[in-house]
Amino acid sequence: MPVDRFFLDPNGAITRRMVARPGEGHYEIGVERLAQDGVVPKDAEDVYRQMFRLKFVRVVVDDEPNTVEIEHGPALTRAQEVAVEQLRRAGKRVVQKRATISG
Q1: The dihedral of CA 80, 72, 95, 26: what is its sign?
Q2: What DSSP state is assigned to residue 74?
Q3: What predicted TM-score, i.e. pTM, was given to this entire model?
């Protein structure tokens, strides 16, 4: 079961919601972050499309089976690569994939 959901910004910093309720995750984080740039997404798919265009990386951390799922649009920035490598060094199995949401 996922235990943590967040985005990595292009600088490798974790981006979460300011105030999150149980069950809220990437969609809500994306809506909140995009609003900072005045972007109003059309739908849920557009939230992810816009976040990936801004070079954010979606991250889901699972305690069992000790994995981290990384989803991104463009190639990872150097800072994001460093953050992912830190997860590997912490003993997490990293599963990385390109987003299938097209522009």
Answers
A1: positive
A2: S
A3: 0.84
